[in-house]
Amino acid sequence: MSVSETYVRYRQTLSEEPLAIGVLLVALWMAWSLVNGLLTGGIQVSSLASLVWDGLLRGLIIGLAGIGLSMTYSILNFANFAHGDYLTSGAFAGMATSYLVAGIGENSVGALLLVGAGGSVFGGALGIGVTTAPIAVVFGALIAGVATIALALLIDRFVYRPIRDESGIALLITSIGVAFALRYLLQFVFGAGVRGTTAAGSVPRVSVPAIDGTFRVTAHDISLVVVAGGLMLGVHLLLQRTKLGKAMRAMSDNEDLARITGIPTEQVIRTTWIVGAGLTGVAGYMFILWKGTLGFNDGWLLLLLVFAAVILGGIGSIYGAIGGGIVIGLTASVSVIWIPSEFGRAAAFLVMIVILLFKPEGIFSGRTTA
Amino acid sequence: MSATDIRGLIQGLFERDVTLVLAVLGTIYLLYVLAGVAFGYGLRGQLNSIANLTFYIGVFGMLALALNLHWGYTGLFNIGIVGFMGIGVYVTALVSKPPVAQGGAAQVGGFGLPLSVGIVSGVVVAGLFGLLVALPALRLRADYLAIVTVAFSEIVRFTMMSRTFQTFTVPDTVDLWLFTFDPAADTVGLGGGGGLILNYPDPLEALLRSLFLWEPYLGLIGFVERNYIPNNPKPVLDGVLYGVLLLIGVGLFYLLLSRTGKSPFGRVLKAIREDEDVANALGKDTDRFKLTAFVLGSALMGLGGILWYSSRGSITPPSFRPNITFFIWIALIIGGAGSNTGSFLGGAIFAGVLYEGPRYFKNLVQTAFELGDAPRNFGEAMAGFASLDPMPFVLYTLDSISQLRLVIMGVVLIWLMHNRPEGLLGHRKETASSVDLARPGSAESTGKPAAADGGEER
Amino acid sequence: MSETDESAADGSTPVEETATGAEPPSAEDDAAAGGSSPDPDLTDVMGAEADTPAGDDGDRYAPLEVEGLRKEFGGIVAVDEVSFDVEEGTLTGLIGPNGAGKSTTFNLITGMLDPTEGTVRFNGEEITGLQPHEISNRGLARTFQIARELEEMTVLENMMLAPKGQIGESLWRSVMPVTRGSVREQETDQLERVWEVLDFFEIDHLAQEYAGNLSGGQRKLLEMARALLTDPDMLLLDEPFAGVNPSLEKRLIEHIHELRERGYTFLIVEHDMDLIMNNCERVIVMHQGRILKDGTPAEIKESEEVIEAYLGGEV
């Protein structure tokens, strides 16, 4: 594969100018139609607020999962298509733990560990929720992170490490194989059904007043914000304050140079997986807790949005991943004001494609890597 | 031509790809026939099994060949194959479905044009969407192109599912400046989540009628019914015939693509795959070549989609999930990207072993041993181990073979990338030229590799 | 300058005519012998003298004119106010310490990079900002610093790629039954020329090898042979001797001199000062993005500033 390094005349063809004008026109139309809608009452402020809140939460999940993807993308130099299934694995591991903690004694351990496969136990009946079973949730989130780390390290050891020196494309194709194996193993073990996992009815909620109505904030929303915010802060401190963080940043900038200067690359790679997978697993668990249902396809369906966020933010930048995640989450939710709701995700993909065409280095580029 | 010449010719043939293809196909078919014997299939059962196998060999072979043009030759990382397939078959349906919006399930009509027009439209529109994707995206890095194309294929699927495009009312007359149309269609659309009922005339019948072979074919069916397969042999024979037609289709794909590969055009594509800057510095307008290759490949993927789905009774959006794309990728990597023969063989091996094989294996086991009902879930399967009884687990495993099949595919893909990244058949040399490149007038043949002498000169 | 375009457009066909028409016996002999002896008559091998464009307006004609070239990378000036001409049929060397801007200048001339300011003219026609393939098709061929072979293609495929005006580069002509015949015909003709050039560079024994299996020096030879097959008026060689063993280096130099005598023009970027001093009739010295000195090797050797630049920086 030739990656045209020197051939930088990229975006100089006819495709650029008309497209840029087109994007601008669309943006203008969107702004006008939003303002018009709000003024004429066609769009309620409260429903807009509700969409924005929803998009923000979605964005936090995407961003949290995106940090891991972005780190492996820049340090190991490949797009990991199995990342979504890491997230699902974390979610299943975490939920199995929560079920076990919440339901031990009254239900069969097997049914609990299988997260109620085949309708043997219901999360609602166990009262899974951050207020109703806080200990189960805390353990669930922890185990989600730990299990995903173990899985990622195991896969790295047996799948990626033997072909570490291959091209990014070879690794990408391999990761598709990992994604298939992982996803359908999950289906084999946990079944194909989508199950409810939380006692949705008993989650405390408040109605936040907006000008012409209210929008709803639940305890799970708040816990998601707290967990995601805390972890993002933690990663920031890890990368800025520790020696390891510096080594990781050096490696994502230039691996060869890092190796020459004596940075222990394998150790850095291991740490990358640990941090990235840990965040991804917790993101998966919080995602499931927040949306209240769990299926074997959840992570895969989220993956493209996570990619969108990472590309938007610039590969290798954790702040970019977080910012990109929020932009993508908001796009997917808020876009339903202008387009039919089926196309929320399509809109997010479109934003990603436009960014790739105009600013492939990401909108947050120019900041330091990591 | 002397006897030795002829012998040489035959020997050459055996060293060639033809033999390899026949050997691989022969092995797969033999295994299936043997499995059929084990199942106690009669002629009908055997023919059904063969027709089914041939169908998948045909479609995977074609699609792997089309992908080989993108990835194997040009190095374009397209993982949006299923999007182009879906566009192809949906357009065909839209154009050729009868205009009358019948009640019941087939609520959406089409334009009622002949199926041939529908197929050509489907291929052309798939190609046009290829152009739409390629124009901006071809300058992207390979991994970015991958993400863009898979996102594109998902957008296509969302569109198919969308309520917005479910139905349209077509006006009675359309004024286009000078022309006025009176479309026969009434309501058209993509059918939303329910998909489209393909209530146009049977493609096989349409084809045979246009070739004036319909009556003879009915005669053949009558003959078979009287002598070999009593009661309604038509579906079986239809299946076999469709399979044969697909194999002819594969042959045409192969011819087209190997001519494309073995030409100055294909040589430039290969050069782009190796190093685009070099091709550019040698005076090749690489953008034009990439665009042409991408559009041709997309159109062929559209045709592949049409041939796969148009003979079904209906199409629904879930059939167009990215999994299909990855199946085709696995097929290509099994066969070895860069070789057309390899691509087809990869498609055949994938279809026969990985795609259909596990199901046959399950049936075989179930026929061989009288087995009870499988447990409903993994927990019950594992429960058997408590009393040291592995049977529940075995039964559950067999019962879940359709999911485990995908696990196997994943593992095979990983194994290939570790051990045989150049394909199961190893590195295959297909020289990109329309003529033999041996020194003119010399007896040397291209197949003979020159002695590899590192730095030794003279 | 229409004459230039014409000669570029139908470059390959008249070449064949010359090759077979002018001296048929020689060509046939060679083919029949199948030997690897280099053809003594280079006119025959290369088909024709390098095209002499725009008529002979004296011996001062300069096909390549670079004027006021400037390139900035995000505020850093890599090439600054670089102007020079390269006269026809000469061997001109471009030297300078690492980071002097030689390769950037090369990339600006060949269209791999767009200059921030300045113009490049070739055969009197402005080529600034054109795409690399457009520049190549105007008769300005280049090689790369690190030989960039198309590794998974054979030497023959590499060579067959190069000629201009291949009708089979149109997909439809290559695929359609009627037109494929003419594609094959052209390829057969082209093949003869390819083998002649392989013979000339004495790499014919490697013809069936994958380019990726060649040694560093063999790659340099292949790259030059390939560039020559684009039928250029002028060749830009980027460090053609880097990583080449001494005996092969000598051969390469001989080839270059032989080709220059046939009328090809060369601009060579080189690191090794001695090589340039001993072989070029004119030397341009670059330092820190600017032209430090431009003159004959003797003049360069005398120049205080050049010595200082070389001793001051790393050689």
CATH class of the largest domain in chain C: Alpha Beta
Our Rg estimate of chain B from Cα atoms comes to 25 Å
User: Which architecture of the largest domain in chain C would the CATH scheme give at its second level?
Assistant: 3-Layer(aba) Sandwich
Q: Total number of helical segments of chain B?
A: 18
Features:
heterotrimer, A: 370 residues, mainly alpha, ABC transporter involved in vitamin B12 uptake, BtuC, 2 domains, two-stranded antiparallel ribbon, 14 helices, 4 strands, 68% helix, globular, disordered C terminus, B: 458 residues, two-stranded antiparallel sheet, 6 strands, 65% helix
Q: What's a quick, concise take on this entry?
A:
The complex is a heterotrimer of chains A (370), B (458) and C (315). Chain A has 370 residues and is mainly alpha-helical.
Protein model, in words:
The complex is a heterotrimer of chains A (370), B (458) and C (315). The two termini of chain A are 27 Å apart. Chain A has 370 residues and is mainly alpha-helical. Helices cover 68% and strands 4% of the residues of chain A. A two-stranded antiparallel ribbon of chain A has the order 1-4. Chain A has a two-stranded antiparallel sheet with strand order 2-3. The model of chain A is unreliable at 1-15 and 366-370 (pLDDT under 50). By secondary structure, chain B is mainly alpha-helical. Chain B folds into two domains: 1-40; 45-355 and 400-419, no CATH class. Chain B has helices at residues 3-15, 17-39, 43-73, 81-96, 115-137, 142-161, 203-210, 214-227, 234-261, 264-274, 276-281, 286-309, 322-335, 340-355, 357-368, 378-386, 391-399, 401-419, and strands at residues 168-169, 174-176, 179-181, 187-188, 196-197, 314-315. In chain B, strand 2 and strand 3 form a beta hairpin. Residues 444-458 of chain B have low confidence and may be disordered. Chain C folds into two domains: 1-6 and 54-149 and 230-315, Rossmann fold; 151-213, no CATH class. Chain C contains 14 helices and ten strands. Chain C has a six-stranded mixed β-sheet with strand order 6-7-8-3-9-10, with helices on both faces. A four-stranded antiparallel β-sheet of chain C has the order 2-1-4-5, with helices on one face. In chain C, helix 7 runs parallel beside helix 10 (216-229) and helix 9 packs across helix 10 (216-229). The radius of gyration of chain C is 20 Å and the shape is globular. The chains are: A mainly alpha (370), B mainly alpha (458), C alpha/beta (315). Chains in contact: A-B, A-C, B-C. The interface between A and B is large, with 63 and 59 residues.
